[in-house]
Amino acid sequence: MPYSFNPRASGEILEFDQLRELLRKRTTSAPGRRAVDGLAFRFDRAALEAEFAAIAEAASYLRTEELGFGGLADPELWIEKLAAPGAVLAPGELLAAVSLLDTAAALRAEFLEQEKRGTFPLLTGRVRLLGDFRPLAAAIRRAIMPNGEISDDASAELRRIRGGIGRTRETIHKTLERILISRGHGKSEASGEDYVTRRNERFVIPVRSSEQRAVQGVVHAASATGQTVFVEPLETIELNNRLVELNENEAAEIARILAELTGRLAAEQTALSHAAATIAELDSLLARARFLREFDACVPEFTDAAAISLAAARHPVLESRLRPEGRAVVPLTLELGGSETVLVISGPNTGGKTVVLKTVGLAVLAAQSGIPVAAQSAQLGIFDRVLADIGDEQSISDDLSTFSAHILNLKAMFGLLTPNSLVLVDEMGTGTAPEEGAALAVALLDEFRARKCLVLATTHHDRLKAYASTTLGVVNAAVEFDEERLAPTYRLLVGIPGGSSGIAIAGRLGLDPAIVERARALMTPESREAAGLIAYLHRSREALEKMQHELTEQARELEQERRELREEWVERQRKRIADLERRFSEALAKHERDMAAALEAVRETELRAQIEKQSRRKIAHARSEAKDEVDAAVVAHLSESQPDLGIAPVETAGPPPLAELVPGVKIRVRGFSAPVVLRRRDATSAEVEAGPLRMKVALGEITAIVTEQSKGAGAARPKTAVSTPAAPAGNGADEINVIGCTVEEATRLVDKFVDNAALAGRAQLRVIHGHGKGALRRGLGEFLTAHPLVERIHAEADERGGAAVTVVELKD
User: Fold this and answer.
1) Positive or negative torsion for Cα 6, 11, 17, 23
2) Phi (first) and psi of residue 394, to 5 degrees
3) Which residues pair with 573 in a beta bridge?
4) Cα(496)–Cα(536) distance, integer angstroms
5) Which residues are registered as beta bridge partners of 218?
6) pLDDT at residue 361, rounded to an integer
7) Alpha-carbon distances, residue 392 vs 6, 443, 558 (angstroms)
8) Would you call 368 helix, strand, or coil by DSSP?
9) Looking at the whole model, is its pTM more than 0.85?
10) Would you say 272 and 75 are in contact if contact means Cβ atoms under 8 Å apart?
11) Residue 504, C-beta contacts closer than 8 angstroms, at least 6 positions apart
12) Which helix or strand (DSSP H or E) is residue 77 part of?
């Protein structure tokens, strides 16, 4: 028979069945295990993404709840039996059906409650269509007891029949006991012939063969010795006949009850099959969610292009084997796709090259079978097939060498390849002369590259490493080997080739140094140079990784220190401001006490009233001045503390001319990140407004006047912790803040804002103008009402600002 390559064997090579076994162990029911067995490689991206969304939701559910189906008897056999004409389920099968009915009812109740809370909608959607089987379950449970016997409550007729059976049996017993007593075999005697028994379903009494003629009746049996016969006396024949009839009636009624219950189940067969399928799917989803949690797996993201991006990926089957030994799998990280489609992996034997192939291949198979990927993250394209040539394919029956089998596999692959295929090839070019094998491997990789499929190939050939280093679209990778410990680290290093390290390992293992040196001398100069270069690249990479680790650690420490300094600075400023407020309160309280004492000293009522009025004015003035001083101190502290926060002071060209500092103009003040509005000024200071905050600042703190040109210049502004109103929004915003603007300024800004919004296709905007005296709101209202692009305006809802915000609806 000619040799043939089976692409489905890739699943066996990559241990996909063993992965499914890990999932089977995490199911709780026979239907769930069958659902896991049905997981297979698929290509429907939308269906896979929906399934993974449900798995993620199941994992979220398992964080707070637990759900299993251990009490569910396998429904497969009895559901199939329902379809047969005239089928009647046995009591045990009906009890198995009750377990399905109860499970479905419990599921329905649980997720209807979740639906009320608005949680777990995907799981709820799967359960919502389950039928309500509670009446049917109650009927079966009423008819059949847990031990499988039919209950007297199954029907009124059965209760009547069983009552008749009991009374008839009691009459028979009394009659037979009376006969025994009359013959001198009372219950107190030990003759061995003083009991009532049954033969051929009829009640009889034992009689000695020698006394058989003394008892008239029907002999039903004799003892083994023949010395005793079992006689049904004439007095009980009619009673026994009645008892037999009643027993037959009981059996007929039980058969009728079982048939009726079976018929009720058969009428619900479609709904019952749906319930069993739903439970199977849920059990499978929960098993995969448990796998996701226990193996620190992830939900993969699918991409449009055929590409692979794995972070910290592991082979879960290998990990499950190593865990009991307290060992861990070394994760791998790689990216392949786009312009780089071929990855050539080199390194020593037992270094983990084959594990890399299997890990990547199994990750793709798992993702496209609806199974979480054992990785920190995974972005994968949708592949049409995974083709693997891994392991020893030598076949005596087909008269094939290992080399021949590999070549035939590769030949068959080329007949199946598409740009959306993933190819995994182990030990390319082995099994023949090294020079020929390397040349053949290069030619094969070139063909794979031309076909634009993704390829991961392992090799020992230096020529393939050189090919990967010089060929566009081909990338080198190495599995690391610790030559000091003579042990693999299993780390995958992408971007550099790996060394075989055979001679070094032989030397470390104690081979005669002369032989080792002779081996080195026999190497070609090119091979020695290549080995030296590879060793240099590995040392350089280790040094770079060490430096990167140290820099990352230093950056983390610096960030922690900066965070601590910032927190310390904020706490220091909070204490300073609290101290200023305390001193202000103390001074104010002292002034009020002095005023009260002075008023007490004044006897004349009119004079007291006049002094009190003047004092109140002075207190108000003092309060205002103290508040201005506190605000100025806060600004000073913020400005002084900018270097502590790493904020460079803003270089200015000096304060603007006093003539330009008129009320209503927007100005920049040292220490503030956003412009503020000038309200009034005198010869030495100015009162400014920043949102709800009003304060006095020295004229020397004013650095510039804000104009429309300076707003759009995009110059960098200093950052401070002072909160200011939002600047007017640009084209991408849905609202604009014009608090502090004059009606004229606000109108100009809002007009431009409405134009930009209309061009961007927005339907609704918000204009924030505040309450104030209402002039700004009224002026903007008049302007917007007449605007040709505005459909209508109205105040915002109370909870979103009320009359302080105007909502503008634009015309279509």
Assistant:
1) negative
2) -60, 135
3) none
4) 10
5) 232
6) 95
7) 15, 22, 54
8) coil
9) no
10) yes
11) 483
12) helix 76-82
